[in-house]
Every structure is written in structure tokens, then in C-alpha cells.
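Example S7 (C-alpha cells).
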């Protein structure tokens, strides 16, 4: 039971860390690469309009307009990228250290 709670809190910490790291990466990109960031926001705006312009009933379209925003789409992309990056780094550390990752469902 001890390892189950440790795995839960480590995965929760990984999610929290990737949210913070995604915000830092977005701020870095905003500061050092404003043209690229502007293009990302324009791309996210086109995704938002494409998603909302569907034939949604009014009750769902209101929810989509309230929840889907360009900032959220771009931030979600940065968080996903940092989660992938952190996963690759952890995998490389395990490979260099010579340890095998534990399978999720051992048989």
C-alpha cells in the first residue's frame, strides 16, 4: 500500500510540475520569441473558431464560448509539450542509470 500512495503522489507532483513548467515555457516564449507566440495565438484562434462554428445547439455553444479560449489552447499545448519532455528526460535517466521502469500491471 505504501508504494501505491507514493506512486499517486509522484504522479500528482508530475502533473503539478508540468503545469508550472508549461507556464514558465509560455512566459519564456512570450518574452524571447514574441513573433512565434503571436503565430501560436493566431493558430489557436483559428482552432477556436473552427470548433465553435459547428452546428452546436445554443446550450452547448455558450459553454464552448465560455471555456475555449486562445490562451487556454496555447497554454494546454505548452503543458503537453513539457509533459512529453519531462517523460523523455525521466526515461533517459532510467536508461542511463540502468534501472528498468516498473510495468503498470505486473503479471
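Recovered sequence:
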Amino acid at each position: 500500500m505504501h508504494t501505491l500512495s507514493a506512486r499517486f503522489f509522484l504522479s500528482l507532483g508530475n502533473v503539478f510540475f508540468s503545469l508550472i513548467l508549461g507556464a514558465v515555457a509560455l512566459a519564456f516564449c512570450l518574452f524571447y520569441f514574441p513573433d512565434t507566440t503571436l503565430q501560436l495565438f493566431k493558430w489557436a484562434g483559428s482552432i477556436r473558431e473552427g470548433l465553435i462554428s459547428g452546428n452546436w445547439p445554443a446550450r452547448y455553444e455558450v459553454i464552448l464560448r465560455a471555456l475555449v479560449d486562445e490562451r487556454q489552447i496555447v497554454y494546454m499545448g505548452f503543458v503537453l509539450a513539457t509533459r512529453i519532455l519531462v517523460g523523455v528526460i525521466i526515461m533517459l535517466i532510467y536508461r542511463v542509470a540502468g534501472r528498468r521502469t516498473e510495468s503498470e500491471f505486473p503479471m
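Notes on this example. Helices lie at 2-32, 34-52, 58-67, 70-97.
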